[in-house]
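Please produce the structure of this protein holding glycinamide ribonucleotide.
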Amino acid sequence: MEKLRVGVLASGRGSNLQAILDSSIAGRIDVEVAVVLSDVEDAYALSRAGAAGVPAVHVPPGRFRTKLEPEIEKQYIGILLGYGVEVVALAGFMRILHDDFLDAFPKKVVNIHPSLLPAFPGLNVQKKAIDYGVKWSGATVHFVSSGVDSGPIILQAVVPVLDDDTPETLAARILVEEHRIYPEALQLIAAGRINLDGRRVTAGPATTTGKSR
Ligand code: GAR
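Below is the modeled complex.
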């Protein structure tokens, strides 16, 4: 099967990037990480990309705190298209993308989030889950739409919230599941198995070429 060219955007540690790289390099998924982009110069994600022989590019975000400057967002789009990226995977990328970015990759931008969406969108969600008193939390891979953490859900995984959990222990339990379901979700896309009907995502049978993706 032709490999799906994925561009990863990451702002920090990059453990989800590493899970995707590991699955790709081991041939478990029909995905090639074509380029890694970061808004943070010393993001460890960039080192991980370099170590895997994947182009790693830092593009400073400009003057805004929560989003990219529009001109800079155009640079991100240009770089991703220049590397032949078909799907953009946000992996701990801590900035909101404008519609122009989403329009450049229609229904092809995905994100991982450490809660069971639609519960607890936004930041510090493990603490929010504990403080709320939920007994179960988890991870969600979803398509990105213009709202925050609100697009159609591709895969979720559930973990228990234990009585003695701290945000850190819960985050670690969720992260194990993130590393499992993010490569799995990308493989569904690579294999052309995703059917999107309104908000509902279902996984159809694999095609032999993945070309229906
Ligand atoms: C992950 O837990 C990811 O789900 C979360 O940031 C962490 C990044 O870790 N993303 C969000 O909260 C996005 N709203 P990583 O850099 O080790 O992959």
